[in-house]
Design a protein that fits this description.
With 176 residues, the protein is α+β, with helices and mostly antiparallel strands. It has two domains: 88 residues, 2-Layer Sandwich (TATA-Binding Protein); 67 residues, TATA-Binding Protein. A ten-stranded antiparallel sheet has the order 2-3-4-5-1-6-10-9-8-7, with helices on one face. Strand 3 and strand 4 form a beta hairpin. The longest helix is centred in the middle third of the chain and has 17 residues. It starts with a strand and ends with a helix. The model has no long low-confidence stretch (mean pLDDT 93).
């Protein structure tokens, strides 16, 4: 299949079982944080020079966003875990990591007749006066693809690189 993709964002849920964070202390010990519990119940942490950033909650849960690969997210989580353990407020357990969403830009290396696709398939949305792309929803794998006449696209809602490739392959097969 002729298709190139590049991951733009990986969203990961991080859980430290049976752990709690003292967010006031955490915000004071880590640099590059924002914490105002009257506005948001978590610490926003963005280490300088890094792609990934975090939302950290007192429940021992975090969201990691912005990494360009699953490995990059895992590395950022490892670094943060070591850092908070180093200031003796971190959990003793290893984190459970669950990919929630991957967003990738796609290049199918060919154009699409999005109007024909919109007229042919039921699982699509196309309103060119509102948005120039066609929204194509798949159930296997679970994914949403935005397709543009230029042959470019965006894939969202997947949880692995395999699913990006499967989703792109399915769309290519269906819209030949």
């Amino acid at each position: 299949m002729d298709m190139e993709y590049e991951i733009q964002n990986v969203v990961v849920r991080v859980t430290y079982e049976d752990s709690e964070f003292d967010l006031n202390r955490l915000a004071n010990l880590l640099e590059e944080t924002r914490y105002d519990p009257d506005i948001f119940p978590g610490v926003a942490y963005k280490p300088s020079g890094k792609e990934a950033s975090f939302l950290i909650f007192s429940s021992g849960k975090m969201n990691c966003v912005g990494a360009k690969s699953i490995e990059g997210a895992e590395e950022a989580i490892r670094e943060l875990t070591e850092r908070i353990r180093g200031v003796e407020i971190g959990p003793d357990v290893e984190p459970n990591i669950e990919v929630q969403n991957i967003v990738a830009s796609l290049d199918f290396e060919r154009g699409f007749d999005v109007e024909r696709i919109a007229d042919t398939f039921r699982n699509v949305e196309y309103e060119p006066e509102v948005f120039p792309g066609l929204v194509f929803r798949l159930s296997d794998p679970s994914a949403t693809l935005l397709l543009f006449p230029s042959g470019k696209g965006v894939c969202a809602g997947v949880k692995s690189e395999e699913d990006i490739e499967k989703a792109a392959e399915r769309v290519t097969e269906v819209v030949k």
